[in-house]
Write a structure and sequence with these properties.
The protein is an alpha+beta fold and about 270 residues long. The chain has one domain: Thiolase/Chalcone synthase (Peroxisomal Thiolase, Chain A, domain 1, 3-Layer(aba) Sandwich). About 35% of the residues lie in helices and about 20% in strands. It is built from 10 helices and 8 strands. It has helices spanning about 25-35, 55-60, 60-80, 95-105, 115-120, 125-135, 150-165, 180-185, 225-230, 240-245; strands at about 10-20, 85-90, 140-145, 170-175, 190-200, 205-215, 250-255, 260-270. It has an 8-stranded mixed beta sheet with strand order 3-2-4-5-1-6-8-7, with helices on both faces. Helix 1 crosses helix 10, helix 3 (about 60-80) crosses helix 6 and helix 4 (about 95-105) crosses helix 5. It is globular. The relative contact order is 0.21. The model has no long low-confidence stretch (mean pLDDT about 95).
Length: about 270
Amino acid sequence: MASPTTIILNAWIDGIGLLGPGLDHWAEARPILAGATDYAPRPVVVPPPVVLPPPERRRVGLAAKVALAVAQEAITTAHVDATQLAAVFSSSGADGDNCDALCRVLASDDRHISPTRFHNSVHNAAAGYWGIASGAMTPATALCAYDGSFGAGLLEALTQVAVDGVGTLLVTYEAPYPEPLHAKRPHPAAFGLALVLMPQPGPHSLAALHVEVTQTPFDRLPDANLEALRLQIPSARGLPLLRLLAQGRAGQVILEYLDPLSLTVDVLPCS
């Protein structure tokens, strides 16, 4: 039982977006995560960001494309208006390609930096592109917490739901770094996970969440390949939660956060 000082954050999940190796979208991934279908890793196919105007579509990097893809899927499955939702974008590294390109230019004799490269390299680039794509003028937060970035994003989104009483779109995403950065930070593939979190249940609500910060050992995935994905990509730390949602049952899952902390998540399906 929670102590009198424990803060429990509550919300309802109305939509899910997912993209990763062998996990092209939530509908396809659901039987895999539930254990009904074998998981077969394969290269990620990131859909083009058709929600962006052509000029922005040509400039956007891989990380932002992943973020936009899962954000759009979550909004679509939730049947909500994106312009009515606050947003939280969380990534441990965001656009590594542009970071690498800028570092190479700065290390060369010609240090003229492309303005397009620069504005794509900032950590809130994906949030900016989402504002353009969706037309949303609601608050958007961009954050980073290294390997705890999924947990930090979930806590931030739930806090906005609880404090402001507004629906919030959580988008967590990663893209692999090029060498030599990859050797130091080896994300094996692009990955994105998005949740639409609402303060009240609605006709499309999938489950209620009750989340608190604890120091309980976190859960691991029974499938070795999925567990490797969870360990290697920070945004994939949310896969145990999606596994429980895919199974459609009430239960509790412990998510990895910032050592020694973890997140205890109680899930109650709406149907």
